[in-house]
Every structure is written in structure tokens, then in C-alpha cells.
């Protein structure tokens, strides 16, 4: 059976129960966020929509005692890497057949307002079994109502972002960490890079590197590992202009960003514990 195609759907920043602060920070970083969404599973979110992928801020409401309380077991920061699926039933069947440890699809909804009218956005996800991935959540998302999610009016950002280029994962043994993706997408999707492995995900990539390699690339801008040996560390975004991204950060009063030739880095402490990089 053919393995699912490697396509990036979205990446997720975990705000635990502090969505107001997360949304304020990411707006000041220059992202246009959708209105607050309320999932039928109990979580809340805001999205920053790009060309074919997006950034999601996710949290549980303040004081919640039911719903997506699993989000409270993870630290702040990058916590979810999500692949696209055109048919979640086929995705599940294909992966289960080759032994990838996944759970059956789960369907849920979220009300969305478009042109003053409320609609239900519908999704079905296929997730890795609990404990399979030590550094966060890896899953597939099947959109039934793409027209309620990818809308042009939400794709314009003050920082000029048009796509997610890269996600960074820290693993003490990158080769062992990359095996799951080789099983999911085929060995040809995994490449050798300095300090680790890279998984090719359509127009993006997931770099699985040692902590030493992460620090060699980002220095003091890296996130607080909070005692974790494996964790999701940050994101690289493509912007139409690094200068435009820098202006957005200045207007948002984001401190500590470092701009070099063709690159702008925001320290993790200024972005909910995820180091962010903007490139052209």
C-alpha cells in the first residue's frame, strides 16, 4: 500500500491556559490572527494563515477542568507538527498496515464566522499513540471545510510571512528520532544534515538535531528545555521581506531580535518559548 504523501498542514504553539498573552505576543510579532475559535473537544485557538499551511495557537480556557486538559501536561512552546490528509480513513489504514503506532481517526468541529454568518468547520485527525513521540504531538489533519480555513483575508501579515519553511526538533539521537518519519513517508524523505537528520515535508522540512547543533544555530535565543532531553524548539518562516518582518517586530515592541544578512531571529523568551526565524 502507498504511504501517505508528506505535506505540512500546520504547526502548533501550546499556550496552556494563557491564550490572551499568547495572542497578544503573536499579534505583536506581526501575525494576523483569526478570531478565537472554540473546538467541540474543549480547546480554544487562533490561527495565522499562510499560503498552504498555518500556525495555530492552542490552549484551554482559564479555569477549565475538562476538555483538552492534556495541553496542560506540556510546557509552553512548539508542541504540535501536523501533516495534511485528504482522506483520514485511507491515511489510518495505510499507516496501520505498515506498523506505524497510530490511533483511529477522531472528528470534531469549530464554529467559524465568514461574512457575518456562522458555519461549522469540520476536521478529522489521526494521531500517534500516547508516548510514541517524546517531544510533543505528531498527527494528521483532514479538513472537510477548507474554504472556512484558508481565506485570503486572513493571509496578510505585517511581518510578511507566507509559509512555514522549517520546524526544529531536539533529539539526543537524531537518527533514532527520524525512524518514525521514515516509516511514515519512506526512507527517501529523510536526509543527513549537520548535527542530525532532516525530513522533507513538501515545501518544508523538519530538522531533527542535537541540542548542541540547535545552540550553534541560535545561541542564547533557544527555548528553555525545562529538563526535557527531547523537545520541539522552534520554527523558520519565509517572509517576503526580512526588513518588513523587522519593522513589524519594532512596531510590536518585541525585544532582543537579531537581524543578520537575510535572517531575523526572535528569542524563544519573546515568543512563548519557541525560537522563531524569518528568512526570505
UniProtKB/TrEMBL annotation:
Start and end residues of each Glyoxalase-like domain: 8-184
Listed SUPFAM superfamilies: Glyoxalase/Bleomycin resistance protein/Dihydroxybiphenyl dioxygenase
A Pfam family matched in the record: Glyoxalase_3
InterPro entries given in the database record: Glyas_Bleomycin-R_OHBP_Dase, Glyoxalase-like_dom
Highest taxon in the source lineage: Bacteria
The organism of origin for this protein: Reyranella soli
Protein name: Glyoxalase-like domain-containing protein
Coiled coil ranges: none
Amino acid at each position: 500500500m502507498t504511504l501517505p504523501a508528506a505535506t505540512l498542514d500546520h504547526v502548533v504553539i501550546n499556550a496552556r491556559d494563557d491564550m490572551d498573552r499568547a495572542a497578544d505576543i503573536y499579534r505583536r510579532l506581526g501575525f494576523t490572527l483569526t478570531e478565537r475559535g472554540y473546538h467541540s473537544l474543549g480547546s480554544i485557538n487562533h490561527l495565522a494563515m499562510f499560503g498552504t499551511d498555518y500556525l495555530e495557537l492552542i490552549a484551554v480556557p482559564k479555569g477549565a477542568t475538562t476538555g483538552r486538559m492534556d495541553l496542560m501536561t506540556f510546557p509552553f512552546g512548539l508542541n504540535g507538527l501536523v501533516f495534511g490528509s485528504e482522506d483520514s480513513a485511507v491515511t489510518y489504514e495505510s499507516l496501520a498496515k505498515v506498523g506505524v503506532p497510530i490511533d483511529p481517526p477522531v472528528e470534531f468541529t469549530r464554529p467559524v464566522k465568514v461574512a457575518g454568518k456562522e458555519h461549522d468547520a469540520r476536521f478529522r485527525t489521526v494521531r500517534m499513540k500516547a508516548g510514541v513521540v517524546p517531544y510533543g504531538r505528531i498527527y494528521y489533519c483532514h479538513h472537510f471545510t477548507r474554504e472556512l480555513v484558508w481565506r485570503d483575508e486572513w493571509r496578510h501579515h505585517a511581518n510578511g510571512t507566507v509559509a512555514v519553511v522549517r520546524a526544529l526538533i531536539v533529539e539526543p539521537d537524531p537518527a533514532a528520532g527520524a525512524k518514525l518519519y521514515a516509516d511514515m513517508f519512506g526512507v527517501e524523505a529523510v536526509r543527513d544534515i549537520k548535527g542530525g537528520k532532516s525530513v522533507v515535508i513538501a515545501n518544508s522540512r523538519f530538522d531533527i538535531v542535537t541540542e548542541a547543533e540547535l545552540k550553534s544555530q541560535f545561541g542564547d535565543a533557544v527555548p528553555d528545555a525545562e529538563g526535557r532531553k527531547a523537545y520541539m524548539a522552534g520554527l523558520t518562516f519565509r517572509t517576503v521581506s526580512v526588513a518588513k518582518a523587522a519593522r513589524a517586530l519594532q512596531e510590536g515592541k518585541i525585544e532582543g531580535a537579531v537581524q543578520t544578512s537575510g535572517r531575523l531571529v526572535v528569542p524563544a523568551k519573546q515568543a512563548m518559548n519557541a525560537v522563531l526565524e524569518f528568512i526570505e
